[in-house]
Amino acid sequence: MEVELRGVSKAFDGTTALQPIDLTISSGSFTTLLGPSGCGKTTLLRLIAGLERPDRGSIRIGDKLVFDAERGIYMPPQQRELGMVFQDFALWPHMTVYENVAFGLKARGRGKEASAQVARAIEAVRLQGFEKRYPHQLSGGQQQRVAFARSIASQAGLILFDEPLSALDALLRDEMREELVQMVRELGVTAVYVTHDQTEAMSMSDTIIVMRQGEMLQRGKPEDIYHTPVHPFVARFVGRSNWIEADRQLVRPEHVQWTAQPEARTFTGVVTRVSYLGDRYEVTIKLANDSIWTAYHHERIAIGDQVQVAVAKQHIHSLESASDLEAPSVKQEEQYQLKEVINR
Amino acid sequence: MSKSYRGELRFPATSWLMLLAFLLLILLVGVPLVMVLLHSLFPDSVFDMLAPFKVLSNPGLFSYFWNSIVLGAWVVLGSTLLALPMAFLSARTTIGRHAWLDVVLIIPFMTPPYIGSMGWILFMQRRGFAEQLFPAAAKLTPHFFSLFGMVAIMSLHLFPFLYLILRNALQRIGGSLEEAGSVHGGGVFYMLRRVVFPLLLGSYAMGALLIFVKTIAEFGTPATFGRQIGFYVLTSEIHRYTSNWPIDFGTATSLASVLLGACLVFWYIQNIISRRYQYNTLGGKGMRTRILPLRGWRAVLGWGYTIGLLLLSIAIPYFSIIATSLQKLRGDGLAWHNVTLAHYGELLRPGSKGWQALMNSLGLAGIAATVAVLIGLFLVLQMGSMKRWTERGLDMLSLLPNTVPGIVIVVGLILFWNAPWMPLPIYNTYSMVVLTYVVFYLPYSVQYIKASASQIDGSLLQAGKVFGGKPLYIFRRIALPLLVPGVLAGWMMTFTISARELVASLMVLPPSMQVTATYIFSQFEQGEVSLGMAMAVVSVGFTTLVLVIMNHLGADRK
């Protein structure tokens, strides 16, 4: 089911949450909205769901025009026929697993097909035998699966995910990530997925949309986002970036070599930190021009050593028209550095 | 990212219903209170700003006011002396592991004060149970009928309230704050003085002021014990001026205004204190409180105190009431041959006066509880997210009857509904009694239902929308079932306390009609005390049974 947004924007109490956006999400794709808190990704998702009403523009889901500001069309969420997995799952505590999953069918007056559809959905998430349990009798991962079963039970063609894994612990998150992708692929539905976790975005999606301050910065395949970012913010937010020229030219850490090949550019610097990751050492180097780089090495290097590193020309990515883009403020830069530290 | 999207719990979302909610509350609560104030400012149909104060310049009337204040102060002291050691024992020693204690210690608070006072009177009066059990006590018992006795009875009724507040505060202070103190070199007394007491002070001040306000607003004990010893306070005198000849509504409303003013002033002080001196002593981490193991003389002392307290606050009044209710002839005293169930037989004989009073009570309380939860549910649904001032205003107005002494509300309701221009002739009918109960106990319904509502996360209702539920369907299938526990709790509380309510019943019941509370009251004053006490047992027993059953049902639902 294709989703099409034209010139959609939204402000809350005068604060812009989403700048006018044009976006087409192709049928059957897994699209991730990626960005830091307050970037507008959740707002965008809620606009598609109909939980918020856009200020401008139009939204089409499949062949239904669900919102058009000019023509005064606003279809409430009830009529949009989509599935959604909420951040905190939002399972109704007074209903059993069965009742939770069957809600969408019964609410739409399709109670007759309920038992068959619910059984199918519960089988898809492998929760057979749990139908009569209440949500509080389930583990976090099981609750997550119920939330997913609920979103697919009424066979909606579009499923929205609002940071569905953020309530789980790290180990379970990795496991559920793979399971979720697999289930979505098997059903062949269109998925729109919101997250601030780049690992999640990279490993699950066909398409990633990186957002910042209510603006869509880049849209592309995970590989494109990583290797050819178009905006310094994207380069910083997704993966590690070593800047050859601030906000213009960068190289990813795995392409930093310790021996120079012909035609490679070389840089010298001082090792300021070395941390052991088990399979390799992560080395932080302060270059002569004061930029901080990250590189990987197979053995320990002493802190304070003068080192020379090399980068092959084809691995240097230049941002196009970087001059047009306003540089992120110092404060933001600090935030992302902090984020990188936390993500390690 | 954890934004919470709240405020979807409003059904249906129209503003004229908000207006209706305000009108309803103003009619039920606002206007009657304004009537009290207005009436006291126009003593002889002439405006006199100072009229309420003139009342105080009358030495006789001033003494009522002064007695109320003195009584309040003594009861605060009495409750503190009773509650503080118990709170310490429960929070910091192994006695606290006995969870049943918390349930048992609530009993005095849940006992209607007029019934507790009657128990004490029966115990201490001449040829009462104290003298029958210990003839030597005859020398001491007459001294009980004094301000001391009244303070003791009221303190024994109100201390559980302060106990709970102090115990929670002590538990919150937690071991680590004290350990930090001792690591940094403080001795035991230094630490009590510098760490524990300052942290406790905010909670204590709050609890003490609440006790004070509850004492000066209390009617049951002054009406029973106070009158017997000639200690007159505002509440008992307001009642006298409105119901005994010569009736003087002017003086009554002035006294009511004074009482209302005093209560509001103390509530306000309480509010300031609780905002300024409440420390957030509850850490996010699991708490380790230091638990003192009790051994040897400490165990004797600790358990001795606990058992003594339970004896005084529960055993003595209940023993007196139950024993009296079982006596054939009160003159024959405590003896097996003097035991009879005849009084209960008389009460439970359909058609007897007692039976009628009982049925009246249950019927009125049931109707009042049902009306109160319906209004409460309606109000809570209009309060939505409590963000707008209208929603907060609605909340405040609906909780007002909890702040204002019951007798003031009754006087206001009588002034309003008995006014010559009032077109609805409900005064002197059943409806007036139901209305009074509803106004009295609306805050309970609102509080309980609001607590349920606040647990419903906005996303639960949004999920309902996304999965295709229409507003009515979402309300019926999601919001209402989640509100049911609050509605049940509100109904149960309202039913229980309405069924025992004394002051409202005394003042607004139609002349020929009785409920359990007035029946007990009149039998005790001038009738068969044993019958009255049997009714007290039935009334307390039945309402407790309802509480237990409803609690049990509520526990099953989760």
TrEMBL record, chain A:
Going by the UniProt record, its keywords in alphabetical order are: ATP-binding, Nucleotide-binding, Transport
Please report the stretch or stretches of sequence annotated as the ABC transporter domain: 3-238
**Matching SMART domains:** AAA (SM00382)
* Keyword Transport part of the UniProt annotation: yes
Residue stretches spanning the membrane? none
Q: Which InterPro entries match?
A: AAA+_ATPase, ABC_SmlMolc_Importer, ABC_transporter-like_ATP-bd, ABC_transporter-like_CS, Mo/tungstate-bd_C_term_dom, NA-bd_OB-fold, P-loop_NTPase, Transp-assoc_OB_typ2
What Enzyme Commission number does this protein have? 7.6.2.9
Q: Which reaction does it catalyse?
A: a quaternary ammonium(out) + ATP + H2O = a quaternary ammonium(in) + ADP + phosphate + H(+)
> Which Pfam families does this one have?
ABC_tran, TOBE_2
What are the recorded GO MF terms, alphabetically?
A: ABC-type quaternary ammonium compound transporting activity; ATP binding; ATP hydrolysis activity
Q: What stretch or stretches form a coiled coil here?
A: none
GO CC field: ATP-binding cassette (ABC) transporter complex
- Give the enzyme's main class according to its UniProt record, as a single word: translocase
- Complex formation: The complex is composed of two ATP-binding proteins (OpuCA), two transmembrane proteins (OpuCB and OpuCD) and a solute-binding protein (OpuCC).
For this entry, the protein name equals: Carnitine transport ATP-binding protein OpuCA
Q: Which organism is it from?
A: Paenibacillus montaniterrae
